[in-house]
Structure prediction request, 449 residues.
Amino acid sequence: MTGYSRKAGFFKKSRRSRMGRYALIGEKLSHSLSPEIHSRIFEKIGMDGTYELVEIGKDRFCDDVKRLADSGIDGFNVTIPYKNAIIPLLNELSPEAQAIGAVNTVKIEGGRMKGFNTDIYGFGKMAELCKLEIDSGTRALVIGTGGAAKTAAYWLRQRTGRVWFLSRSGREAMKKLRTFQVIESKNESAIGKMDLIVNCSPCGMFPETDESPIDAGIAKNASMAMDLVYNPMRSIFLQEMEKKGCRTAGGLSMLVAQACKAQEIWNGVSLGQVEKGLIESFFHENMNPVLVGMPGSGKSSAGRRLAGLLCREFIDVDEMIEKKFGPITEIFKSRGEKGFRKIERETIKSLRNRRNIVLATGGGSILDPDNVADLKLNGTLIYLNRSLDSIRRSMEDGGRPLLKDQGDLRKLYEEREEIYRQSADLTVADAGNEALQAIEIQNMLKKIF
Prediction:
């Protein structure tokens, strides 16, 4: 099951036998990927199990956790804001959970609840997969002071003694984090000396995807950045750090890895190869191929073919606009380019949380940096670098905006070509036809994880 309703009676005592019952408890869970991840794990290990979302308000937290434990459930995960609050309700803690002071996994056996922290394993896997080079000389800055931040700091401290917390409330944070150094957010000089920045706050998480926990320009010395946020896949914070040349890591791999570790605790299974495959699968499923390039470069044709190869829905931004507002040529006539770009901006913004699609953009979509940022939240931007001659041959209708005079084509190409390259994650050369280009893109996507 992938949803939860109090009316469904989740807290009632289960009479089913030989079926694992698990859940995620938290405050706001509607966009969680956890049910899907655990469902896949059940399939892989051949287990008949359920995993549900249980939203609990702070005012009824203790009572609902006790009712949940009495319902016959075998275990549950814990997410914000309860990773610390759950501890007094538990009978026992694992050494890691005890040391960190945060629990994200609970196993119920013989009426007793034992708390574990599998986030620490997931955090390590996240750093490993992105090949982050962290050693005794690394200066690490952890943003946030909650359970996730404590977990990251615990893992980092085992590798470097140079770990700081960033907090807006410096004095209050110092009381909570007595054994760590705390930097106030206004101390730009100290932030600028850090090698690694780790965002453990919910800043930038859907739906507030426009936010970033710090100004990347302040992190002058940073060469690495990690963000525990997984929705979106590539937060604004990570995008800005990428522009600085930093090696970055998003939170999806941590989410999947900690879920696999939780299942190992609950069911005594080994999920090494399953974990690797699941991380790769979820990465590719949640990152959309986004085709950018000149008008007439074959984005729509190649995109449709690519969507067929990947078994995904194909979406064309220009087609979406025309279905709602009429022909683009008429929009340019009645509203001008400025009016069209405003419509285009809103259309792209409406797509920024879509998953498992192939998206073709308009030729001028990437002229707006906000469009690029939105497209990269859950997308891999692929530049179709087609030759001018090839573009000319493909433009049979001659009615595209800005291209009625073919003499302007070269000028337009020269103005935009560098923007396409800088915005793109991948560049695909002219393969001769869209079918071959789609296959080439598919092969390139397999290699980027």
Summary: Residues 365 and 371 are 7 Å apart (CA to CA). The first helix runs from residue 34 to 45. Residues 131-249 form a domain with the Rossmann fold fold (CATH 3.40.50.720).
